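Retry 2 of 3 after timeout on previous attempt. Resubmitting C-alpha cells to design endpoint.
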C-alpha cells in the first residue's frame, strides 16, 4: 500500500486554493497588518457579506475598539509566531469569557449563564497568538449536516447561493470560504467539519473525542464530539496544526490506500479517484469488500448511539421546551426514547466491529483515503433524510472509530467541490504532515 506519486490532481487541489487568493488573505497576510488595520479589515469583510448571510453566520462580533485591542494584545515575535495576529471565528459551542453560548438555539443562554472564563479551545488559541474575531452560528445544537437554522437563517455556500454550506459547523466554514477570516473553529461529531469543508472547498481537521479542546464545549454526543478547524489552504492548515497539536515528521514514507465506497455520484467518484491517485493507490478489492462488510449498518448504529447521548444532554429541556426546538432536531433527540433493546444491542455490536476493522487496518497502514461526501453542496430542497444518510455512510465509520481526519478539497468540473478524508489513528500522525506537504503545505 505504498502511496502513488503526485500528479496533475495535486495541482488541481492547489488551483482550488490559489483561485481564491484575490478574495482571501493568508495567515501571513493578516500578520503584516497593524492592529487597527487588521480590525478594520476584518469588520469590512463581515460588512461586505449579504445581509441574510451575515445574520446566518455571525453570532457575536466585537466593535472596532475591542477588536483592535485584541489584535494589539496578541503575543507576537519577530518573525511572527505561527498564529500571532491571525483572526478566527469560533463555533458557538465553545465558551469565550463574557459571551453567551447559544449553540444555534433560541433558548440556551436563558438557562446557561455566560461563562466567566474562556474555554480550553480559546485559551490555546490565545496562547498561540490567534485573535478571536467573533462567534459563528451553526446548525441548531450541532445536530445536522446542513447549514439550516430556523432561529438565525440558513447558511448558504458563499459562491453558490441557494446551495448549503454544509454543517453543522456552517457559519465557521462559510466565513473562511468567503475570505472573512483565514481560520475558524468547528466541531465534528458525525461529519460537521468534513462535510462543510468538502462543500465549501476548504481544508478541515478534526481531532479525537475527549480531547481537552472539546471537553468543556457544549456537547452533542460526548463519546463522538471532536474539536477542529478550517483553513482555505494547505500551508495555513499545516501552521494551525503545528501551533495547536504539533505535527510530526516521519523517517519513512507513510503507507496508505484509497477505498471508494458505493453510492458516489459519477462526477464525484471520478474526481475523488483522480485526486486520491496523488496520495495513495487503490487498495486490493478484498480490502474494499472487507470494508463494505464491516461498515454495513454503521449509519444506523451511529444514529442510535449518538441520539442516546444527545438525549442525556437535553432530557431536562426536551419536553418542557419542545416549542423552542426545531421539529427536526427535537425528533432526532426524541427518537432515542424509542429505540428497542434489539436496536441498541445491534448498534453496540456494530461499534465493536467497526473499531476492530480500524485496529486491524492500522496494524499495516498509516492512513486511509476516502471520499468525504457523495455529492457537492446541496440545494435546499435536496437536504433530505436520504441525503443525510448518504453523507453519514461516508463519515460515520471514522466517527465510530473515534479517529482523526484531515479533509482536503477536490475540484469538480462544475466549479463546485467535494473532498477527500485522510483518516489517521492519532492527531500527530506523520501522515498528516506528509499529505499537507504533498499539497503545498
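Retry 2 succeeded. Sequence:
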Amino acid at each position: 500500500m505504498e502511496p502513488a506519486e503526485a500528479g496533475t490532481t495535486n495541482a488541481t487541489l492547489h488551483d482550488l486554493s490559489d483561485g481564491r487568493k484575490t478574495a482571501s488573505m493568508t495567515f501571513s497576510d493578516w500578520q503584516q497588518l497593524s492592529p487597527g488595520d487588521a480590525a478594520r479589515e476584518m469588520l469590512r469583510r463581515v460588512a461586505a457579506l449579504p445581509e441574510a448571510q451575515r445574520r446566518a453566520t455571525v453570532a457575536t462580533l466585537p466593535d472596532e475598539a475591542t477588536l483592535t485591542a485584541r489584535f494589539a494584545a496578541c503575543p507576537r515575535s519577530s518573525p511572527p509566531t505561527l498564529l500571532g495576529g491571525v483572526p478566527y471565528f469560533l463555533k458557538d459551542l465553545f465558551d469565550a469569557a463574557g459571551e453567551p453560548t447559544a449553540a444555534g438555539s433560541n433558548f440556551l443562554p436563558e438557562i446557561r449563564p455566560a461563562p466567566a472564563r474562556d474555554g480550553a479551545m480559546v485559551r490555546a488559541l490565545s496562547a498561540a497568538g490567534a485573535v478571536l474575531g467573533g462567534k459563528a452560528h451553526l446548525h441548531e445544537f450541532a445536530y445536522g449536516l446542513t447549514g439550516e437554522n430556523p432561529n438565525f437563517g440558513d447558511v448558504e455556500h458563499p459562491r453558490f447561493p441557494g446551495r448549503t454550506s454544509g454543517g453543522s459547523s456552517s457559519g465557521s466554514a462559510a466565513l473562511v470560504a468567503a475570505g472573512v477570516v483565514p481560520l475558524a473553529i468547528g466541531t465534528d461529531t458525525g461529519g460537521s467539519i468534513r462535510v462543510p469543508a468538502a462543500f465549501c472547498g476548504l481544508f478541515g481537521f478534526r481531532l479525537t473525542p475527549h480531547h481537552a479542546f472539546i471537553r468543556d464545549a457544549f456537547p452533542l454526543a460526548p463519546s463522538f464530539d471532536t474539536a477542529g478547524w478550517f483553513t482555505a489552504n494547505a500551508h495555513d492548515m499545516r501552521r494551525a496544526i503545528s501551533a495547536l497539536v504539533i505535527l510530526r515528521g516521519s523517517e519513512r514514507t507513510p503507507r496508505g490506500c484509497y477505498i471508494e465506497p458505493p453510492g458516489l455520484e459519477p462526477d464525484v467518484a471520478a474526481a475523488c479517484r483522480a485526486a486520491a491517485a496523488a496520495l495513495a493507490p487503490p487498495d486490493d478489492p478484498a480490502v474494499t469488500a472487507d470494508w463494505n462488510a464491516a461498515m454495513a449498518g454503521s449509519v444506523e448504529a451511529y444514529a442510535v448511539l449518538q441520539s442516546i447521548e444527545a438525549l442525556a444532554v437535553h432530557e431536562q429541556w426536551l419536553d418542557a421546551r419542545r416549542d423552542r426546538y426545531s421539529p427536526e432536531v427535537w425528533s432526532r433527540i426524541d427518537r432515542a426514547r424509542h429505540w428497542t433493546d434489539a436496536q441498541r444491542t445491534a448498534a453496540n455490536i456494530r461499534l465493536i466491529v467497526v473499531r476492530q476493522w480500524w485496529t486491524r487496518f492500522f496494524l499495516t497502514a498509516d492512513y486511509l483515503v476516502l471520499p468525504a461526501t457523495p455529492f457537492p453542496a446541496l440545494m435546499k430542497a435536496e437536504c433530505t433524510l436520504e441525503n443525510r444518510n448518504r453523507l453519514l455512510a461516508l463519515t460515520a465509520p471514522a466517527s465510530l472509530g473515534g479517529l482523526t481526519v484531515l479533509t482536503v478539497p477536490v475540484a469538480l468540473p462544475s466549479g463546485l467541490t467535494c473532498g477527500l478524508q485522510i483518516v489517521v489513528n492519532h492527531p500527530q500522525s506523520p501522515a498528516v504532515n506528509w499529505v499537507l506537504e504533498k499539497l503545498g503545505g
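Attempt log closed. Residues 341-364 form the longest helix (24 residues).
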